[in-house]
Design brief:
This protein is mainly alpha-helical. It has one domain. The chain has 9 helices and no strands.
Length: 270
């Protein structure tokens, strides 16, 4: 019975939060793409600094080890991004492709008839890898809550669903800011969200032995979100803008931070 409850809770939290984020991102807010990128940057940084890292440092792991994990995580996602760009450039023999990362946006490839595939957005693999690690950790946390008390497990599942929505809105915007279609972006983030159920299953069987590794899962996920926010999203926002446009950018960045901070506070309140 507990295992079934864990599976339901993790699927609702993991995939439900992605679909709810997609309904908001691709529905009412779809026309505000640039504003959504600002919100995505805020949401990703807040998820890392206001939710995951504080939770990691509450564990028994040494601060030095966690900071080392964070540093190695940033370097790993930088190399992952490099490999992604190199592979994409090599695949299409298109030297101009590398400018995409430097300028922070994707160029129109209408002039290149041989270009069959949409360009890969820098940071997409970092986002999906970090998401999967994060969701795996969420699954273990939900499993732990259900094993302690069924009611606590239900509250934890709803809390994870709520605080993941603004974060997944950020993920979907990162994937959509390339030329990939909405459906593909939704499928990719949903698959990462489904890893929550895998984390729940593993957590059910190995919750005691895995508990000491949770802080490291949280830090690795944090490093991916910090890297994507600072290396891929913020550069796209660094343009010469009017005062009103700059204020709008900062407001949406603050909204992303505020949403995740409030949701994380509510989650921890339980």
């Amino acid at each position: 019975m507990t295992l079934i409850a864990i599976l339901i809770g993790t699927i609702v939290a993991g995939i439900g939060s992605v679909w709810l984020a997609a309904a908001l991102s691709f529905g009412a807010l779809a026309r505000y793409t640039q504003h959504m990128l600002s919100m995505a940057a805020g949401a990703l940084m807040a998820t890392a600094f206001m939710h995951l890292l504080p939770e990691a440092f509450e564990g028994r792991a040494a601060a030095h080890d966690l900071f080392l994990t964070l540093l190695l995580g940033l370097v790993f996602f930088f190399l992952l991004d490099k490999a992604e760009l190199w592979h994409h450039g090599h695949e299409h023999h298109h030297t101009g492709e590398t400018h995409r990362h430097a300028h922070g946006h994707v160029h129109n490839h209408a002039h290149d008839p041989a270009h069959d595939h949409p360009p890969v957005q820098p940071g997409s693999w970092a986002i999906l890898t970090g998401d999967s690690v994060h969701c795996f950790g969420d699954g273990i946390l939900i499993a732990s809550a259900f094993m302690a008390d069924m009611r606590l497990g239900a509250i934890a599942s709803l809390a994870v669903l709520a605080h993941e929505v603004p974060h997944h809105m950020g993920d979907l915007m990162v994937l959509r800011s390339g030329a990939s279609n909405k459906r593909m972006a939704l499928v990719k983030v949903s698959l990462a969200g489904a890893v929550t159920a895998l984390g729940g299953l593993v957590g059910y069987w190995l919750v005691d032995s895995l508990h000491s590794y949770l802080p490291y899962f949280l830090v690795v996920a944090s490093s991916s979100f910090v890297y994507v926010a600072l290396a891929d999203l913020i550069p796209q926002l660094q343009k010469r803008l009017s005062l009103a446009e700059t204020l709008a950018q900062v407001t949406w960045l603050g909204l992303g931070i505020g949403l995740v901070t409030v949701m994380s506070g509510l989650a921890h309140g339980h």
